[in-house]
Amino acid sequence: MDHCLVLTNCPDAGVARAIARTLLSERLAACVTIQAPATSLYHWRGALEEATEVPLLIKTRTACYPALQQRIVELHPYSVPEVIALPITHGLPAYLDWLTEETSS
What angle do CA 74, 76, 77 make, to 5 degrees? Predict the structure, then answer.
């Protein structure tokens, strides 16, 4: 699996856009899709929390994941941001070739 889809949620559109632009400018991602705000419910420090968040769908190469994860952690305002990578097992070959090209130095 050479490619992965990374998921994270941001507290607002400004943070989402800043993280997306940084990942793209540093060639850690080929594409970042900023989704519509969503409501997240979760346990945090013993309490049930509810927050409006802006999800990001980040398309990258698996080889870029460690640096991408580190940049999200550095840029994200949450002390423990969600950073989850899912392998891309199938995809349009031309799209996956483009993804590889855009994330290669």
Answer: 115
| 34 neighbors 54 (Cβ within 8 angstroms) | yes
C-alpha dihedral over 32, 89, 2, 92, to 10 degrees? -70
Task: CATH number of the domain at 12, please.
Answer: 3.30.70.120
Q: In which domain, by residue range, is 73 found?
A: 3-102
pLDDT tens sequence across 4-59 = 999 999 999 999 999 999 999 999 999 999 999 999 999 999 999 999 999 999 99
Domain count along the chain: 1
